[in-house]
Each structure stands twice: as C-alpha cells, then as structure tokens.
Amino acid sequence: MQAWRVHRNGEPSEVMELEETDRPTPGDGQVLLRVRAANINFPDALLCRGQYQVRPPLPFTPGVEICGETEDGRRVLATPALPHGGFAEYVVADEAALLPAPETLDDAEAAALHIGYQTGWFGLHRRAHLQAGETLLVHAAAGGVGSAAVQLGKAAGATVIGVVGGPEKARIARELGCDVVIDRHAEDIVAVVKEVTGGRGADVVYDPVGGDAYAKSVKCIAFEGRVVVVGFASGTIPAPGLNHALVKNYSIVGLHWGLYNTKDPAAVRACHDELTKLAAQRVVAPLISERVAMAEAANAVQRVADGTSTGRIVVLPAGGPR
Length: 322
Prior knowledge:
Elements (H helix, E strand, L loop, with lengths): L1 E5 L5 H4 E5 L9 E10 L2 H8 L15 E5 L5 E4 L11 E5 L4 E2 L6 H6 L2 H13 L7 E5 L4 H12 L3 E6 L2 H10 L3 E4 L5 H8 L5 E6 L4 H6 L3 E9 L12 H7 L2 E4 L3 H6 L1 H16 L7 E6 L3 H10 L5 E5 L6
Parallel strand pairs: 8-9, 8-11, 9-10, 11-12, 12-13, 14-15
Antiparallel strand pairs: 1-2, 3-4, 3-6, 3-15, 4-5, 5-7
Helix pairs in contact: 2-12, 4-5, 4-11
C-alpha cells in the first residue's frame, strides 16, 4: 500500500515521504480499516516536528483521524494507532473506540466531525459550562478547531466573537455565524471585546493558539470568566499570572480531549451522538476548504503548519470528491 512516512523530524514538506509499504497488522482488540478520508490536524505537523506529546518511533505515518471502512463495509470514524497514522491507504485502530460515520455527511465531512468537534464540545460544555446568552471569544475562528467552536457556540445560544488574521479569514468567520469578527492584524482585540460587551468582557475564551492570543484574552475576560486552553498553534506556551487570575476572578482550564478516550469513553460516545444529531439538523457543518489527493498530502500538512489554511484540508487516498 501507499503511505506517507517520516524518517526524521522536521517540517512536514521536508520530512514526509510517500512510500510503498506493507499494510499494518492489527493487534489484540484492533481492526484493519481502509482509509476513505484522512483529515489534517495541527498535531500532524507537531508529530512531524517531534513536538507532539506523543512521539511515535521513527519511521511513522502521521494522520490522527480518519473516516474509514471496515472489512464488512461499515463506515466509521477512527483515530489510527500510531505509528500507522491516517495518511495511508490502510490503518489499524482500536475496535472499541470506533464511532459510526454520520449518514448525512460525506467521507471528508465525517472525518472532520471527530477530534475538532469533540474538542469543541468538551471544551465549551464539559470544561467551561457555556450558557445561552453568554459571550464566547474564539481565537483562530476560521481554522479547523476554531470553526467547530464557533458553530458549537452558536448552537449553545452564545454570542460569538471570532478572532482571525486577515480579511479572507474574516469573511469565512462571518459566514460561519460569528456575531462579531476581529481581524487581529488590523484591530485591537481587547478594545473591541470590551466595546461590544459593554465593558464586561468575554465569559468564555476558546484558545487553540496560546502566546499573544492568551495574553490579550485575560485582559478582556469577564468576572467569573473561563479560559479554555486547547493548544499552542502560535508555538508559544503562555506562563499564566495566577495573581491576575485571583484578582480578576477567572478560571483557566485545560483540555486534553484524548484523555476522555481512556478516562470516560462513554462520554465520548454520548458526545458523538449529540454531534451526529447536530450534523443531521445542519446546525453544525464541517468547513472543508480543500479535498486533496494522496500525492498532495505533505504540502497540505505544511499549509496547516504554517497557518495559511482555513477550515479543514482532507486527504482522499483513492482520489475523487468523497
């Protein structure tokens, strides 16, 4: 089969190599899946760089989520078992963690409904307890993770402020449903948030960026606000001033969604059922910006790493518009 493999750590476009290799062999409790669509996530870039919290042995195949097909023809969502990631024609995955692919979504959309939307749902509801009528501030609102949080925030009845970088991303954020869009290249995030909230600030901040995004968020956080730390796409991990959190009376909560797969798998399945309903009602709809062939995967991962992409880029190993 064909698979993209990483033999040394570095930038995705430099270290990902398309090779012919053997199909992976399922272990105990695992199944072999044919990959129908593999969604690109920022962690795929971190895996290539050797900067992810999980460091599979070299060589490995990146690709942390797929829509795949079982040997008996079922369409499922899965997180492949590294080092055999999703940018390949076949993967292995834990059978107990397979989720049915929503019938109302095509393969690319289904692949994108998994980690990003699960992360958004757990972050907003389980960790931040977002309430209808509250104000939600979403960083990187036109990206894969941010776009999911925007849609889930609107579904929860929140007023959503999206932060983006540039006019094209601002246009996409408005189309996603943001009530207010801030172009961080041209506007002062803190000033705009305070203005549109009448000085109160944002009740919940969803931050997959870190760095300066976090620093500005805590300057415009509301009384009893909650900052959900999702990731550090900026490359800079903030050092929170806990004295500031005390004085302003806000909470900083972390979210590592993958832990729920081992700590509370029933919650993951319940979340998937809820997301499937929302997708069937078209309340949420994964933003697929590109569907690329297998040969284009390395360059696509690099664009995600560089922050130049919007929504989700999905790799289709067999080609076609699935």
